[in-house]
Backbone:
């Protein structure tokens, strides 16, 4: 049982070297270690920042970043706090609110969280804090779960109203009922603001503007606090999200102990005797044991040696499997093999979760297998070690998960176990990536007109629009165009001088879906079980959820049985299945009607472009593939769907025609691909096409290393001769109508993304000409991953990167 | 102002849902001069069920050689099936077929509105072809363009083309309005006033709690009309499948109310005990920037009717302020009554008082506001006569003979918007006429109120337990 006091064994194992030496049946898993040195905390006297009436109630000093944030807030600024999870961010804004409340007994605040679950946890934490501070104020949750009779009561008397943006969107329609809250609102808190990116981020950004507009109407201008995990662009992100200006507090004053991180490569699978003589370089990831299984064994070893361990997996199903595997493995040990372990995820009941949190904190549990549900916010104390089964997707998540280990200032151990995909393998090859100072930028883009227009319509329903509203919805000409469009469509009347009013069906707010970008959202319904999924955009449905598609969601496999479109609310029907197959969808794609918004001329026919384009894509058929051996099961089947057209944001890389010569010179002579008979081009062009295609795939796959985006919402196209661009080119586009900023951010960060792509592709252990899933192959490729050519890709990327000036 | 031409438009869904009795009822209700339907086979359907020889226009048919003109008084309605027809207009004017002294309405399905949100554009499809075929230089009269490719709420000026939609359900939020019937009053001065009704308000279906299957059951048992149902005894109905004693009471009650033209009252909860002030307001739209006319009737002592009018868009709060000044000074502590006040008048007044004369806000909030519509329907305290609960229908079912040519709120709002956008002689409203309409509405409201007040209570009302509502008349319809 781990009770917090270091025992000789414990101490010894919190170190990668000793882990290696003590590990039974060690098979050279330890590839690398990295150390993050300990940091002393930086403290500030509470009295120097807070008035005595509050400071007296605080038992401890404040961390430096807490003090700095409060000082800035007291100076009247908006503040973005970008420090690690358990660095006491909630304290900052709750303390500040207490200050405001003491000055003005009528002061009220809005604290907004991304999920109802987090809202619930925070409600308790904040009320406890207010109690401790002796402040006469109460925080109450108000959202879709609140019973209607309670709502007027809460509106009337809650000092802090806790809610989420989906709720705020709806409540703005009846802002008259909220008049008292809005009039007195002195503080607006947006917590976990880094989660607002992509499509959802767009919706939230416009909702924040509508909210601030109404607050202004009632005479309020609250200060704003954005609480965020570390992202590369905290100031810009907060500003785009809210329209206000922010000071950023990002130097974390909370202390931490020394952190050792072990990079632990799963050994080769049992039974692969043929590989006995192969060198490391020759073994490809697919031949190794799965990360999850390995993670279970490592956890068992640590847990049995008194190291309380928290293991993060990628899905709910994996937590259950992992926990069972660990407990089974424990009984196979020579020592007294009993491991107290439990799975944890958001699908468990509230009671169950509370009980696990408590038992983890009290030391009764040796190990817990969790999804990223335990990454943020929830108080579980600290564990001795964390194990990461697969890379969680962003550096911020990585450090959040690692950060769960380490009691106070004592040392901790984290073990990172990569999966076989491109990103994980890249990190294994370049562990320094994790320790770099740069963190991914959070992408949020407001140029999608369709989303803008819908929120504008809501704003008109809330208050008639005038020219002054270009403060929120400008620039002026965009506002005018949108108002004119809605008037022509019969949904608005009037003009910006007198006031443009909403004149359409009531409650346009209910037409807003915070996760999609068009009107055509498809619900997902499961015929033989439950599924809790947000509605999908039409393009997503056609691409990934067409009839016959197999998908994994939250650890459960589903097959799409039907797509119903001739109803007011279209939907996708799925059923739970358990097969050993997956599906790959094939498509035909064209891109045309390009509009250049920005470009970089690299000379000699090389150029980078950013703009809009029309993507016509027909997801015409799909294949079922056996997971184990990768062979197709049956012939391709038709999806039965019509082609769709998207007008969206994209970027493209134009190359001169003589790139062909260069590529031919760079690649090994015997690696030339053979063009299929139906192709109208020769082997050379086909091979070069493999390089373009590889560059397209590679950059999409690697972009999450630099940017917080969802690369399943992106697509690409590459061709040796494009009719409009008239040269070899590859495109990367957003797969969402109107665009969402992803492709454009790749343009903005081209050099970094291309560099990482080149590194991965070049380094890949697969050694294959046509690459592998860890470097070039994409499960989303509509062309069956053909042609692909690793050397050609490297040659092409080099040719572009060479031309980018150092300053870019 | 001469009587308008009434055009009644049936959607395909409405036609498929309606039985003969309902069809007949709808024609009786709207008394159209011209009927329009989407498809050729609908024409037969209408002709079979209507006794009168009302001309029927098929909006979705193939282009025809002839260009029929239907008239009522000086107002002409021309059915256009192809842009080429527009070239005939100069000749029709010269031949006197079209009266150029009044607005002429062209009805077609050639113009539709397409939205392109990604490019922030709305387009009038068919507009180019239509406009180039229209011989603007050779025609003298003024034309409005009706289209079956847009819904009756749609009106917009596309350049010089004034386009009005007529077909319920077209271009709406999916599922909205598709099953409705629209009635358009086409005035000689170019004003168009529209209203719609759902078929389930007609015939037997229009009786409270009678849905399709109960209507069928009643018909199968010899009760085909509201009159027959009103005459029925409870024991005749309660044994039928789908009914029971309390439901039988409800439906007969409702049928009687409409047929006899009286209010059937069930309760007393919350009904004002002192003589109230009756009001009605006119705004520039549903989410108004201005309340420009408030009519108020005080019948205590010597009857006073007050009209608070704000003509000048530069002084948007004038009417509201004057009203509150009068209310607080002259008739304090009296209940204020507005029809559908809870849905419209009261929240709007509150917002505009807050905006323009917030000193009166507390007085307003302390006023007892009563909405007879809400009281009757949401609080289940009475059954109102009339096919729908609209003020004009209820009042008219009670025998009120008001101003038949009243305009819809939307039409009035639109007129005022035009004035606001460009105040000049052309756009200036006939203030007296509007004040007269407003007064008419206020008096109709008083009539309905009196009918409720005087209605004797019916014993044993069915359909549900008498509600002891915990909300007062100032309650809210759903909380967000």
Residues:
């Amino acid at each position: 049982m781990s009770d917090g006091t270091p025992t000789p064994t414990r101490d010894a194992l919190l170190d990668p070297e000793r882990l290696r030496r003590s590990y039974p049946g060690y098979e050279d898993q330890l590839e690398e270690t990295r150390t993050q040195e300990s940091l002393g905390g930086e403290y500030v006297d509470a009295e120097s920042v807070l008035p005595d009436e509050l400071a007296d109630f605080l038992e401890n000093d404040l961390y430096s970043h807490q003090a700095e944030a409060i000082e800035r807030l007291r100076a009247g600024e908006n503040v973005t706090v970008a420090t690690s999870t358990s660095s006491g961010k909630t304290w900052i804004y709750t303390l500040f609110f207490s200050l405001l409340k003491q000055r003005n007994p009528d002061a009220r605040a809005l604290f907004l969280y991304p999920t109802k679950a987090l809202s619930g946890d925070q409600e308790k934490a904040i009320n406890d804090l207010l109690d401790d501070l002796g402040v006469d104020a109460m925080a109450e949750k108000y959202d879709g779960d609140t019973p209607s009779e309670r709502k007027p009561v809460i509106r009337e008397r809650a000092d802090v109203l806790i809610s989420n943006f989906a709720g705020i969107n709806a409540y703005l329609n009846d802002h008259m009922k909220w008049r008292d809250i809005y009039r007195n609102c002195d503080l607006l808190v947006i917590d976990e603001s880094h989660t607002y990116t992509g499509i959802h981020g767009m919706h939230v950004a416009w909702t924040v503007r509508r909210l601030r507009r109404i607050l202004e109407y009632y005479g309020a201008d609250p200060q704003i606090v954005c609480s965020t995990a570390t992202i590369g662009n905290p100031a810009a992100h907060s500003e785009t999200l809210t329209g206000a200006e922010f000071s950023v507090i990002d130097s974390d004053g909370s202390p931490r102990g020394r952190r050792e991180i072990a990079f632990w490569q799963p050994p080769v699978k049992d039974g692969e005797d043929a590989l006995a003589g192969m060198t490391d370089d020759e073994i490809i990831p697919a031949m190794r044991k799965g990360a999850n299984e390995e993670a279970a064994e490592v956890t068992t070893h640590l847990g049995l040696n008194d190291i309380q361990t928290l293991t993060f997996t990628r899905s709910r199903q994996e937590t259950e499997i992992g926990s069972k595997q660990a407990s089974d493995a424990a009984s196979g040990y020579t020592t007294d093999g009993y491991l107290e372990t439990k799975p944890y995820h958001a699908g468990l009941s509230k009671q169950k979760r509370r009980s696990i949190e408590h038992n983890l904190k009290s030391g009764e549990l040796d190990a817990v297998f969790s999804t990223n549900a335990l990454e943020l916010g929830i108080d579980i104390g600290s564990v001795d070690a964390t194990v990461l089964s697969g890379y969680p997707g962003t550096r911020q998540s990585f450090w959040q998960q690692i950060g769960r280990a380490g009691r106070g200032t004592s040392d901790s151990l984290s073990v990172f176990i990569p999966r076989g995909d491109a990103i994980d393998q890249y990190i294994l090859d370049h562990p320094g990536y994790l320790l770099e100072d740069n963190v991914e930028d959070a992408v949020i883009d407001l140029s999608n007109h369709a989303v803008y227009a819908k929120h504008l319509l809501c704003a008109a329903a809330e208050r008639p629009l005038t020219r002054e509203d270009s403060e929120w919805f400008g620039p002026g000409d965009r506002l005018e165009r949108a108002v004119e469009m809605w008037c022509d469509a019969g949904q608005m009347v009037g003009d910006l001088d007198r006031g443009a009013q909403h004149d359409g069906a009531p409650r346009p707010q209910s037409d807003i879906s915070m996760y999609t970008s068009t009107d055509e959202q498809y619900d997902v319904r499961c015929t033989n079980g439950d599924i809790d999924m947000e509605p999908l955009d039409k393009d997503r449905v056609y691409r990934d959820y067409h009839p016959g598609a197999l998908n994994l969601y939250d650890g459960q496999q589903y097959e799409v049985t039907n797509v119903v479109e001739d109803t007011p609310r279209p939907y996708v029907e799925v059923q739970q299945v358990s097969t050993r197959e997956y599906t790959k969808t094939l498509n035909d794609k064209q891109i045309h009607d390009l509009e250049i918004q920005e470009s970089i001329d690299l000379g000699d026919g090389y150029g980078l472009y950013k703009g809009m384009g029309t993507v016509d894509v027909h997801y015409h058929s799909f294949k079922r593939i056996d997971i184990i051996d990768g062979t197709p099961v049956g012939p391709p089947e038709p999806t039965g769907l019509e082609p769709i057209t998207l007008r969206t944001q994209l970027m493209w890389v134009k190359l001169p025609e003589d790139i062909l010569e260069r590529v031919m010179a760079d690649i090994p002579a015997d690696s030339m691909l053979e063009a299929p008979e139906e192709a109208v081009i020769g082997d050379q062009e086909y091979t070069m096409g493999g390089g373009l295609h590889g560059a397209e795939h590679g950059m999409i796959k690697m972009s999450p290393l630099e940017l917080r985006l969802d690369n399943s919402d992106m697509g690409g196209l590459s061709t040796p001769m494009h009719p409009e661009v008239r040269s070899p080119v590859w495109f990367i586009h957003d797969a969402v109508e109107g665009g969402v900023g992803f492709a454009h951010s790749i343009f903005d960060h081209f050099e970094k993304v291309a560099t990482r792509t080149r590194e991965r592709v070049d380094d890949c252990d697969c050694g294959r000409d046509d690459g592998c899933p860890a470097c070039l192959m994409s499960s989303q490729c509509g062309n069956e991953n053909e042609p692909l050519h690793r050397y050609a890709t490297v040659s092409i990327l080099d040719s572009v990167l060479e031309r980018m000036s150092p300053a870019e | 102002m001469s009587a308008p031409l009434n055009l009644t438009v049936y959607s395909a869904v409405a036609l498929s849902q309606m039985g003969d009795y309902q069809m007949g009822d709808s024609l009786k209700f709207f008394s159209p001069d011209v009927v329009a339907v989407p498809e050729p086979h609908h024409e037969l359907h209408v002709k079979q069920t209507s006794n009168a020889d009302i001309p029927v226009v098929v909006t979705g048919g193939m282009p025809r050689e002839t260009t029929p003109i239907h008239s009522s008084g000086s107002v002409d309605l021309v059915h256009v099936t192809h842009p080429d027809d527009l070239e005939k207009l100069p000749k029709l004017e010269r031949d006197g077929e079209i009266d150029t002294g009044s607005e002429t309405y062209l009805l077609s399905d050639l113009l539709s509105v397409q939205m392109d949100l990604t490019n922030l554009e709305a387009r009038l499809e068919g507009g180019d072809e239509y406009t180039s075929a229209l011989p603007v230089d050779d025609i003298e009269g003024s034309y409005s363009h009706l289209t079956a490719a847009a819904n009756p709420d749609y009106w917009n000026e596309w350049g010089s083309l004034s386009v009005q939609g007529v077909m319920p359900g077209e271009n709406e939020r999916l599922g909205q309005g598709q099953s409705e019937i629209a009635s358009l009053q086409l005035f000689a001065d170019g004003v168009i006033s529209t209203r719609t009704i759902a078929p389930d308000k007609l015939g037997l279906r229009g009786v409270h709690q009678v849905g399709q299957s109960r209507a069928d059951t009643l018909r199968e048992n010899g009760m085909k009309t509201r009159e027959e149902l009103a005459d029925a005894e409870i024991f005749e109905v309660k044994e039928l499948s789908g009914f029971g004693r309390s439901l039988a009471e409800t439906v007969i009650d409702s049928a009687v109310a409409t047929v006899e033209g009286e209010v059937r009252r069930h309760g007393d909860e919350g009904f004002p005990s002192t003589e109230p002030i009756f009001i009605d307001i006119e705004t520039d739209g549903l989410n108004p920037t201005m309340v420009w006319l408030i009519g108020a009737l005080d019948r205590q002592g010597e009857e006073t009717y007050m009209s608070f009018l704000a003509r000048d868009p530069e002084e948007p709060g004038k009417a509201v302020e004057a009203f509150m000044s009068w209310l607080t000074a002259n008739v304090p502590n009296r209940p204020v009554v507005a029809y559908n006040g809870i849905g419209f008048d009261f929240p709007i007044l509150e917002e505009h008082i807050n905006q323009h004369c917030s000193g009166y806000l507390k007085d307003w909030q302390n006023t007892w506001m009563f909405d007879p519509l809400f009281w009757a329907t949401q609080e289940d305290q009475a059954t109102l006569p009339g096919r729908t609960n609209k003020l004009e229908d209820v009042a008219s079912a009670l025998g009120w003979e008001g101003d038949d040519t009243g305009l819809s709120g939307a039409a009035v709002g639109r007129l005022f918007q035009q004035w606001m956008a460009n105040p000049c002689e052309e756009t200036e409203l006939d203030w007296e006429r509007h004040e007269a309409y407003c007064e008419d509405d206020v008096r109709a409201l008083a009539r309905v109120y009196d009918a409720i007040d005087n209605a004797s209570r019916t014993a044993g009302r069915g359909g549900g337990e008498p509600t002891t509502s915990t909300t007062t008349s100032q309650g809210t319809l759903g909380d967000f």
User: Anything to note?
Assistant: DSSP finds 26 helices and 31 strands in chain A.
